[in-house]
Amino acid sequence: MRERHSVYLDHSASTPLDARVLEAMLPFFGDVYGNSSSAHHFGRAAERAIEAARERVAEILHCQASEIVFTAGGSESDNLAIRGAAWRSRQLGKSNRLISTPVEHSAVTNTIRQLDSLMGFTAEFVPVDRAGLVDAAAFERACQQGAAVASVIYANNELGSVNDLARLSRSARRHGLPFHTDAVQAGGQLTLDVDALGVDMLSLSAHKFYGPKGAGLLYIRNGIELASAMTGGGHEQGQRAGTHNTAGIIGLAKALELAQDEQAERNAHFSALRDRLVAGVLRAVAGAELSGHPTQRLPSHVSFVLPGIDANALLMHLDMWGISASSGSACKVGDPAPSEILLAAGYSPAAAKCGLRLSVGTGTTTADIDYVVDALAEAAKKLRKLYPQESFRANGRQSSAKSAADIV
User: Fold this and answer.
1) Which residues are catalytic?
2) Which of these, 353, 332, 333, 346, lies nearest to 107 by C-alpha position?
C-alpha cells in the first residue's frame, strides 16, 4: 500500500465550487445585495442579474426564459414538479395515477409514495432491467392508462445508467401525459436540450456541476399546468415563493455555462479515468461486478457490487486511507438496509448491501485512480478476513471478476 493521501471520488454527491463560479458570485454577496423584488435601484440591479442568468440557462436548455423556475436544488424541483402536476390534475378532475420507476432519487420516490399513501393518488412503478434502465414496453403500457404525471430519472444516481428519454417521452406525449425527469446527475455531462429529450419538466442542481449548493432549477414547458406547491409572494411565476438567492442563481448559470462550454473536454477526462478505474477494480478485487449499464452510463460514474463486503464498513476503511466514496445516493449513505435501487435491478438483499459508487471529477488524476484501486483491494481482503461469509455469492450465483474488455 502506498503512502496515505486524500482522494475525493464522490463527485456524484457534490462537486467543489469552481473558482470562476465563485468570482462571478462575489459581487452578489457584497455590493449587489438588494432584494430582486424591490422597486428601487438596488432591487432592480439584482433583478437584472437574475434575468440575465435565466436567459443564459434557457439558451443552454434550448427553451424560453419564461420556462425556467429557480429553486433551492434538485429535491425541491422534483417536489414542485410532481406535487404541482398531481394537484393540478386533481383540480381539473383528471387522472389520480402517478407513473415512475423504482430506481428514482428519493425526492421523487418518497414524494410519490406520500401522494399515494396519504393523499388518494395511485402510484405505478414501472420495472427496470439489471442495469436499472426502464422497461420501455412496460412504460408504454402504463402510459396508455393515463396519469397526472410520469417521472423517469435521466441518469441514475447510484448505478450511473442513462435512460433513453427521447424514446420514453414519445410514449408519454402519445398518451397526453406530462413527462418529468430528474436530470440532476446528468447536468454538465449529458445533453440538456429539452426539445431533443422531449421532456415537459426537468430538474437540475448546481452543486453537481461545480456550482453552489442551495441553487437549482425546474424547467416547465409552456402549456404545462402545475398547481403551486410552495405559496407565498408569487415569485417565479407563482411556482416558487421566497426571496431569490441572487448569488446562488448567478453561480448556477455560470457553472452551467462552463460545463456546457467544456463538456467534451471534461467528458473525455472523466471517461478515461472511469475506464481505468473499472479495469483496475475488476482486476484487483476478486468477485467484483460492475453494476449499471456497461456503456450507456455517465462518463464520471462507476459503481460496483463487491460480494461479501458490507458497503458501510468498506467506506469507513477507505476513509481511513483518505478516500472519499459512497455506497449510493448521498441521501441514503449510512443506512444499513439493502439498496432499494439494487434490489429493483434484481440483486439479492445480501448483494444489495455491497454496493460501492466512485465518481471522478475535473481534478482527479491517474495517480489517484491507481491509489484507490490499491486501497480498495487491500480493504476488500481485510474485510473478507474479518467477516468470512459467502463472499463470492451475488444474487444466488457464483460471481467472478469480468475482464475490462467485457465491460468497457
Assistant:
1) 331
2) 332
Looking up residue 293, the CATH number of its domain turns out to be: 3.90.1150.10
| C-alpha distances in Å from residue 121, one per residue of 124, 146, 151, 215 | 10, 13, 15, 30
List Cα–Cα distances, 43 to 234, 238, 241, in angstroms: 16, 19, 17
User: Would you say the pTM of this structure is higher than 0.85?
Assistant: yes
CA angle (346, 351, 353) in 5-degree steps: 115
Where among 197, 230, 261 does a domain terminate? 261
Q: Where are the beta strands (DSSP E) in 179-278?
A: 179-182, 201-205, 216-220
User: Are the C-beta atoms of residues 307 and 397 closer than 8 Å to each other?
Assistant: no
DSSP state of 358: E
Measure the CA–CA gap between 286 and 193, rounded to whole angstroms: 41
Q: How far apart are CA 6 and CA 62, in angstroms?
A: 39
Residue 356 in domain: yes
Buried b (16+ CB within 10 A) or exposed e, 237-274: eebbeeebbbbbbbbbbbbbbbbbeebeebbebbbebb
Same domain, 89 and 155: yes
The predicted-structure confidence for 26-43, as pLDDT tens digits, reads as follows 999 998 877 766 778 777
Q: Which of 156, 190, 184 is nearest to 339 (CA)?
A: 156
Residue-wise pLDDT tens digits, 278-328: 999 999 999 999 999 999 999 999 999 999 999 999 999 999 999 999 986
* DSSP string over 301-334: EEEEE-TT--HHHHHHHHHHTTEE-BSS-TTTTT
Distance CA 292, CA 322 (A): 26
Note the pLDDT tens digit of each residue in 337-364: 899 999 999 999 999 999 999 999 999 9
Other C-beta atoms closer than 10 Å to the C-beta of 92 total 11
Range of the domain at 187: 32-261
Tell me what pLDDT residue 238 has: 61
Count CB-CB contacts under 10 A for residue 400.
11
Instruction: Assess contact for 109 and 132: CB atoms under 8 A.
Output: no
pLDDT of 394 above 70? no
